[in-house]
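note to self: dont lose this again. the chain is below, predicted strucutre after it. 240 aa total, dont forget to put it in the shared folder this time
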Amino acid sequence: MRFTSEQRLDDGVLEREFTLGEIPGLLWTSGSAPAPLILIGHPGSLHKRLPRLVARARYYAAEHGFAVAAIDAPGHGDRPRSAEDEQTRSDLRRALQAGEPVDEIVDRLLLPLVEGAVPEWRTTLDALLALPEIGGPVGYEGLTAIGIRLALVEPRIAAAVFFGMGFVPGIVREEARQLTLPLQFLLQWDDAGMERQPVLDLFDAFGSQQKTLHANMGGHTGTPWFETEDAARFFGRHLK
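---
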């Protein structure tokens, strides 16, 4: 892991950019060491600098003493996207607009993302836990498809907050039944282009005995801020 820049923000959080091979990432710490760690994934596979992602990360670090890390998944943020990936995204938009079945397209789009991102998260986790300012335990927050697979194969993940999406590959939906860690599942009730029932079915499929569904009115990016505060309390219960 190589740190390429750092700055002390006005809330006292130290923000550092890093690279780990081809993986670009950000790390936020508040100086309380060794701190529990939250891996904060893209709410919709977007850039690690997404303002609402950064706001949540800084809040967890500044107000609750967590170390927080984000990376760009393959084909997202600062990383090149293949022509095949662009075509699949176009196919998904067309199918949604036409009201056609999308399961095959979702598998074609998201399964390679899951299979590429999860090993990179595990490599990043190894490097982060080697830093003296980070001590674990570890939580995950972000895209459901990546989070299910990561939590299943990575025993160091002790709790998770998923952004509820119906777009999850079929094989990963089956894997959700094997999850037993505590989790919170956030659903935006009016998310355009996202049917509610597959999201509710996915929540029902989780094998966890400690699972909570939080449904809020509003569109895809309208998750209210109080859910961030509640997620911090959730991680506090399970990581501290």
